[in-house]
Amino acid sequence: MKIDYRRIHHIQICIPVGMENQARTFYKDILGFIEIEKPEALKKNGGFWLRGAGIEIHIGTETNIHPGKRHPAFEVGNINEARARLKDYEVLIQEETQIKGYERFTFFDPFRNRIEFIQPKSDS
Prior knowledge:
Blueprint: E1 11-16, H1 20-30, E2 34-36, E3 48-52, E4 55-62, E5 73-75, H2 79-88, E6 93-95, E7 102-108, E8 114-120
Parallel strand pairs: 1-4, 5-8
Antiparallel strand pairs: 2-3, 3-4, 6-7, 7-8
């Protein structure tokens, strides 16, 4: 039997316990996601949920955060403007090896979570 994947339902990014306000500033004010209601049964765990462009991001809390290569990648339609916005907010940007047909870079939230923006190159 083959697994019938439909879409990504959500991704979860973890932040240190008690840092929700700083995370809201980054994910809502800088990246532009909208906060959505977290199920009542999960509110006791801390964190919050976001949505934008059909993507859900669940911000969870942990006592030990370990940065690494794992990351979500968001396809964007205005990568140069996105890069400029992040620079305006002094967000740490890391240039990545470019791959054929795409422009991309990664950046880090205040908790050292790695995030990628990627955009297909136009043939013009």
